[in-house]
Amino acid sequence: MNQRPRRNRKSEAIRAMVEETTVSQRDLIFPLFLIEGKSQKTGISSMPGIFRLSVDLMLKEIEECLNLGLRAFDIFPAVEDKWKDNTATKSYDPDFFYLKALKEIKKRFPEACIMTDVAMDPYSSDGHDGLVKDGKILNDETLEILGRMALAQAETGIDVLGPSDMMDGRIGYIRKVLDTNGFAEVSIMSYTAKYASGFYNPFRDALDSAPKFGDKKTYQMNPANRREALIEATLDTAEGADFLMVKPAMAYLDIIRLIRDNSSLPVAAYNVSGEYSMIKAAAQNGWLDGDRVMKETLLSIKRAGADVILTYFAKEFAASTNRY
Ligand code: PBG
User: Fold this and answer.
1) Active-site residue, 107 included
2) Which of 37, 117, 167, 206 is the most exposed place for a label (fewest CB within 10 A)?
3) What is the mean pLDDT of each run of 10 residues along the chain (324 residues)?
4) Residue 119, ligand 1, Cβ within 6 A
5) Which secondary structure element, helix H or strand E, spans residue 261, and what is its range?
6) Ligand 1 pocket, 27 CB below 6 A?
7) 272 lines ligand 1 (CB under 6 A)
8) Is 136 helix (H, G, I), strand (E, B) or coil?
9) What is the pLDDT of residue 322?
10) Selected catalytic residue, list 84, 90, 216, 247
């Protein structure tokens, strides 16, 4: 035999030299759930190890994460029912706890990269990402609300906006609102290929944001479709996105690779709540080695072509690895 591939696997030193992909803290964004109040910390039964935190505790959490080498955080608000209405009014009220907390977080940690979510669902009494009329999700009327929300978030000083709503034309609309109001430096990480997935349920538990009727299939993509991801990517690129995101990640590695091979923009992948919970549950049962499978999963997402991974494992990964 002239070729013996096992020669390149014979020692740890050689294996390390020929390693093609690595994951580091620098690649990761840690999603965090914010609640109103002080000294509040509540568990999410479907997401072991993840908590909703009030801003004082979130500042501590971010500080710990920064010390572990994590630098990017995506902050989502868990909104009480009494603040929800059908036009998501609280999403652009500068006195609302989410926007006030973002300001405080940026002020305390200017070096951290703070990302926000642009979509109506956490603030909507309908639990949908867009305005609802007669059971339908309105597109263009929703853009106006998303624009206000994006501007209000930009005004807090955050670094990256994450439009997760999947309305048509929202990247261009938001880019224009930002630019005409002096926020040309605020980035947009577009949820470009966001699929109507069963893997979001634990997240909806965390935010109590499940749709009150129907599903999200008229705006999120059909899991059966691949080419359609390229249509979305082309539009988001033309409209001014700085990053293209694929979501979920594990069941959509082919889509990550597709976007990677067809765009020069950085590609992000969202390793979503259900993907996290599935691994946690198996590890808690002793069926899988949780630490090993976490690392293998993140590696597979990088190998598929993602530059950036949003993952609930971020802190655990950072705490258990010295790769930086
Ligand atoms: C809301 C939003 C969702 C997620 C991120 N932003 C849920 C949804 O679309 O219903 C899911 C994240 C996760 O499951 O971890 N627009």
Assistant:
1) no
2) 37
3) 97 97 96 98 97 98 97 97 96 98 98 98 95 95 98 98 97 98 98 98 93 94 98 98 98 98 98 98 97 97 98 97 64
4) yes
5) helix 253-262
6) no
7) yes
8) strand
9) 64
10) 247
| Per-residue confidence (pLDDT) for residue 323, from 0 to 100 | 58
- Give the model's pLDDT for residue 321: 86
Q: Can you tell me the distance from the alpha carbon of 91 to that of 99, in angstroms, rounded to the nearest whole number?
A: 8
The finding on whether 233 has its CB within 6 A of some atom of ligand 1 is no
Are 146 and 173 spatial neighbours (Cβ–Cβ below 8 Å)? yes
Please give the pLDDT value at position 160: 98
Phi-psi region for residue 131, left (φ > 0), alpha (ψ -120 to 50) or beta? beta
> Mutate which of 52, 217, 272, 297 to test ligand 1's pocket (most atoms within 8 Å of Cβ)?
272
Q: Any catalytic annotation for residue 100?
A: no
**Beta-ladder partners of 131:** 138
How many Å apart are CA 321 and CA 213, to the nearest integer? Answer: 43
Structure tokens at 176: 């224009």
CA proximity to 256, closest of 310, 202, 188, 199: 310
Output the CA 52–ligand 1 centroid distance in Å.
15
Q: Distance (Å, rounded) from C-alpha 264 to C-alpha 243?
A: 10
Q: Is the pTM of this model over 0.85?
A: yes
pLDDT per residue over 231-269, tens digit each? Answer: 999 999 999 999 999 999 999 999 999 999 999 999 999
Q: How far is the CA of 165 from the centre of ligand 1 (A)?
A: 9
Name residue, tokens 């807090």: 156
Beta bridge partners of 193: 246
Give the contacts of 88 (CB within 8 A, at least 6 positions apart). Answer: 120, 123, 124, 145, 149
